[in-house]
Design goal:
25% helix, 80 residues, alpha+beta, elongated, three-stranded antiparallel sheet
């Protein structure tokens, strides 16, 4: 089990995105989420920020933790 800060996108911003309207992402707007399994992680970059995409159960989540740090964290928490 691992708890991580996940980017939170407000419902209104999701609706605008679905309409093709770009909004400014608030990278400080996160919610803690507990993961019981992680299938994979991959580097994710937006607006010059290095982050990580977490792949689990067919869904992707973005954490503000940089990929290299996340890779080490997942290994130490889930596999040691």
């Amino acid at each position: 089990m691992i708890e991580l800060p996940i980017l939170w996108i407000e419902k209104e911003d999701c609706q605008l995105h679905d309409l093709g309207i770009k909004t400014q992402q608030d990278y400080d707007n996160t919610r803690m989420m507990t993961f019981y399994s992680i299938a994979a992680i991959s580097p994710y970059e937006a607006d010059g920020r290095e982050m990580t995409e977490i792949h689990t159960n067919g869904t992707g989540f973005i954490t503000t933790i940089p990929y290299r740090k996340m890779k080490e964290l997942v290994y130490n928490v889930l596999y040691k």
